Amino acid sequence: MEAFREGVRLDPRNGEIWRLLGRMQRAIGDMAGARTSFEKASEFQPKDRNTLNDLMGLLIDQGDIAGAVPVVERARELNTGDRGLDVMHARMLLRLGRREDSRAVIDGVLAEGPGGGQANLFLSRMAGDGNRRLAHEALKRAHEANPDAAEIQSAYIERLSRSRYDSEVGHLEESYRLSLDFIRRHPDKVARESHSLRTVFQRVMDLEQLDATGAIPDLLPLWQAEGRHSSVHNEFGQVHSLEERVAIVEWHRNWGRNVQRRI
């Protein structure tokens, strides 16, 4: 931190050094200093995406969503046509409770590019279980337009397995087909997306493919690192030893400890 502080003294208009100083300040817990440095960095390199991400990340972690909105609005003005920034803006508006404004931004993005991956992902999450058909249609559009995108395919698989309207059997059959395709297409991402895949394989009782997604002792640390405690809800019947039973109990305890730390 002191090295970067000396750097901005020698070159006070260098936005990248201000950004790196901010990262060091944040690392040692000086959030006020980090915010000032990130704002300086943004002043000198207003179009730099790393600077924007660092400043937005800090504001979100501090819970200052109201302060984050004008930051992303300014970035949109400087980077017209950047759909990623439009989606980021919609996310911030939703977190402020401005649901209609958020939806209007996303609808505008999708009007220009109906297959936009991030926009459709966000719309599906906004719809959630309250409007499963809308969430389903958004992910279907995204997958058809981005067939090689692992994150989108995984989200679509999970959504299909949760769709209860029209033909639930038909939705489950399609999610199973896409799950097999996912394993062939993205073998390096199977562990990362194992929760969606395992839910489907358990429902259709394809135990061979279920085992192919990984072993519980290997998957638990990945799920825990991401805070995905719900991933374990379907796994109580999949343990094969006392040690694995103890591991699942300890996983829930660790989840509880993480929640307590945030209170």
Account of the 3D structure:
With about 260 residues, the protein is mainly α. The protein has a domain at about 1-65: Tetratricopeptide repeat domain (Serine Threonine Protein Phosphatase 5, Tetratricopeptide repeat, Alpha Horseshoe), CATH 1.25.40.10. About 75% of the residues lie in helices and about 0% in strands. The protein is built from 15 helices and no strands. The longest helix has 21 residues, at about 240-260. The chain is globular and about 65 Å long.
Rg from C-alpha positions? 22 Å
**Strand runs, count:** 0
Could you give a short account of the major beta sheet? Answer: none
Taken as a percent bin, the fraction of beta residues is under 5%
CATH class division of the domain at 1-64: Mainly Alpha
Oligomeric state: single chain
In short:
The chain has 263 residues and is an all-alpha fold.
Topology (SSEs and partners):
Layout: H1 2-10, H2 15-27, H3 31-44, H4 49-61, H5 65-78, H6 83-95, H7 99-112, H8 117-127, H9 132-145, H10 150-162, H11 168-185, H12 194-204, H13 207-212, H14 216-225, H15 242-262
Helix pairs in contact: 1-2, 2-3, 2-4, 3-4, 4-5, 5-6, 6-7, 6-8, 7-8, 8-9, 9-10, 10-11, 10-12, 11-12, 14-15
Labels describing this entry:
263 residues; 0% strand; mainly alpha; globular; single chain; 74% helix; Serine Threonine Protein Phosphatase 5, Tetratricopeptide repeat
